[in-house]
Structure formats: C-alpha cells, structure tokens
Design goal:
The protein has 238 residues and is α+β, with helices and mostly antiparallel strands. Helix content is 35%, strand content 19%. It is elongated, with a radius of gyration of 33 Å.
C-alpha cells in the first residue's frame, strides 16, 4: 500500500481510508480525493491540511465578499484556492480574478497546482455565441482576449481590474502555462518582431536603391554630336 493510502483518514471521523474509497467504511461520509497544492500527495476534499506536508487544503470557503456574476444573474462568492482568493459564481461556476491575483497564478507554481487540481476535465465548449460581459469592479464592458495569443482560451479582461473566466477556463490556462505555452507565445512574438525588422531593412534597401538610381538619372548627361564639337572647341581655346 502506498504512503498516500496509509496517510489518508476520513475528515469526518478520522478512520483510515484508501484513495479509491467513495465513502467512509465506518461513518459512511462521502469521500473525494484531491491533490495537495504543495506536494501533490492525495488528500480528502474535507481535510483541512495535507497529511503528508501539512499544506492547507486547496479549496476552502473565503470571505464575505459577494458580487453579481457577469455571465448570469446569480451571485459570486469568495473562495480560497490554496492561498489565493477568487470569486466564483454559485450557478455557472464562472470565476472573477483580480489583476494582481491573476498575475500571481500565472507566475507561481504552487498556486497553479492548487488551481489545476480543482477540475479533472476541461469544460464543455459553448455554442460559440459571443457575449460581452461587464467588469465586476467598474461595470464597463470587458475585452475578449485569447490568453497568450495562442492558447485558444478566450477570456474577458478589464485592464487594471481583473479577468472573468467561464467554468474550467482557469484550469485550461494553468495547463497551457505548465506545458510551456507562455514560452511558445514569447518565442512566436520574438519571431514576428524579427520578421518585421527584416522587412523594414529590405524596404529601406529598396528605397536607398531607388534614390541612387534617381540621382544617377538626374546627374548623368547624354552627349550628342553638337556637344562633342563644342567640347573640342573649348579645349582648343584653352
């Protein structure tokens, strides 16, 4: 039996349990395993801390903040994923992440791990109909942006305030980052800039060549027979 299995205990009664158990054999409480946001060991959803490393459970209830969901008429409430506070809709499970928190998620491995293990599968794709949502903070319509330009996950962004993501999209973004997506996006941007530089250099070379040809055309004189006779006459006089 693995170390994870030995360390697992029912969060309701404390009885030992296996990682594949759906219910506790002693108190019959419902069990569901998730991954620790720090060491990735298995732990039960109801556990407050990881039995292996003592890290806080990935998801807990947050503060008292509430807001209207930009995607549906339901209420968004604060939840805690790892050490990160987010707003999640009770109905559609969309998420509002303020700007500083979103940057932290994109840069921090432990936060990414906590987010990644909230869902076991990508979200179902919608009908393709586009809806512009209002910012939770200022109420203005947000911009729709393809995260990283190449991820294929389109999110709603209010510059300076935050990002709204449909259910499961935060999982897709974290997966994209952990698979090197941001590095690929940066390299693509560098390649595009290099192409622009090469194009500008080629355009400048063509313009310089055109100016040289034009200057040569205006300064080069075509000599005829009369011109040559006049030149000979001036040379004799000199």
């Amino acid at each position: 039996m693995s170390g994870d299995a030995v360390a697992l205990h029912c969060p309701n009664c404390g009885a030992p349990a296996g990682p594949g158990d759906q219910t506790c054999k002693y108190c019959h409480a419902t069990l569901a395993t998730v991954s620790c946001p720090s060491c990735f060991a298995l732990m039960f959803e109801g556990s407050a801390y990881c039995p292996q490393c003592g890290a806080r459970r990935a998801r807990t209830g947050g503060g008292a903040r509430t807001a209207r969901c930009p995607a549906c008429p339901a209420t968004m409430r604060e939840v805690q994923i790892g050490e990160t506070a987010l707003m999640e809709c009770d109905r559609c499970h969309g998420m509002w992440v303020d700007s500083a928190t979103f940057e932290h998620i994109c840069a921090n491995r432990e936060t990414q791990a906590a987010v990644l293990h909230q869902w076991t599968a990508p979200p179902a794709r919608g009908s393709g109909e586009i809806h512009y949502r209002k910012c939770v903070a200022c109420g203005k319509l947000m911009n729709r942006i393809n995260f990283g330009r190449v991820s294929g996950t389109v999110v709603d962004v209010c510059k300076g305030h935050g990002t709204f993501l449909d259910a499961g999209e935060l999982h897709l973004i974290v997966s994209f980052i952990q698979q090197g997506g941001l590095d690929r996006a940066r390299q693509r941007q560098i390649d595009e800039l290099q192409e622009q530089v090469e194009l500008m250099r080629a355009t400048q070379s063509l313009q310089d060549a055109h100016h040289r040809d034009a200057h040569f055309a205006t300064t080069t004189r075509t000599w005829n027979g009369r011109d040559l006779l006049d030149l000979l006459e001036r040379l004799r006089r000199g």
